[in-house]
Amino acid sequence: MDEADASGPAAPPANPPAIPRRVHCGPAWMVTEGARIAVPVVPNFHFDDPDLGRVKARGLLLARRLGRLFVYANVCRHIPLTLDLGDGEVAGLESATFLCHHHGARFRIEDGRCISGPCEGESLVAIPHVVEDGELIVLLPSG
After folding, report:
1. Who wins on pLDDT, 79 or 130?
2. Across-strand partners of 55?
3. Which of 2, 57, 107, 122 could pair with 77 as two cysteines, CB 3.0-4.6 Å apart?
4. Please, what is the Cα angle at 26 between 75 and 107, to 5 degrees?
């Protein structure tokens, strides 16, 4: 028996990487240019935030700007509430922002950064996503 065999199988990593949940959100073309949409019909998911701790997200924010699709957790960086008031309304007055209707924070679509409000300088949590065969698929954190 050589030395490699004597050591036995490698131990699994202490914290194996989480496998994201693939959630189908419908045809990507439905998020039209300039649209800003709150999507409550996805499974709840959690993420860890250095400032807010463990946060439960109950939906997504979708937008299309200059042909690119953007996806964020629908959680304000000031207090972990959804940006909308349950009505799905997240559009700011100008076409380039999401608006938190609780405290007035405005977030740029292209990077999620808060440009005014109580959490200025912080950013929404971006959610990885892909478009496969025209279908928007978000990759939600596991657990």
Report:
1. 130
2. 47
3. 122
4. 30
Report d(CA 83, CA 101) in Å as an integer: 6
Phi, psi of 27 (to 5 degrees): -65, 130
Please state the pTM of the whole predicted model: 0.83
Structural domains for the chain = 31-140 (2.102.10.10)
E-strand ranges in 52-143 read 53-57, 60-65, 68-73, 97-99, 106-108, 114-116, 129-132, 135-140
pLDDT band at 77 (very low <50, low <70, confident <90, very high): confident
Task: Assess contact for 134 and 29: CB atoms under 8 A.
Answer: yes
Q: Is the pLDDT of residue 131 over 50?
A: yes
Please give the Cα distance from 75 to 83 (Å, whole number).
6
